[in-house]
Predict the structure.
Amino acid sequence: MNQLIITSIDSKELVELIEKAVAKSIMKNSFTEPLNKKSNIEYLTKQEAIKFLSISRPTFDKLRKNGKLKEIKLGGRVLFDKTDIIEFVEKSKTSLWK
């Protein structure tokens, strides 16, 4: 392994360098190796998820803030698992009729 000697870098710069390296590694590997055992995982951006659900941005943000819609952060990008969104909709349908 190559040795790296850091002499004049503050802790904030070091954290930024590490975050960038980790994000780069995640982005490199995230679309070739599944994050879990689901097959055919499809991720949506926030805008795609809003369009898919046919709801307003404030409603989407409220659902996200309340933990109803789980986000996945990959290399600075926030994505949503389409299967999770569909499951949320199905649960919401059944809870309305109870």
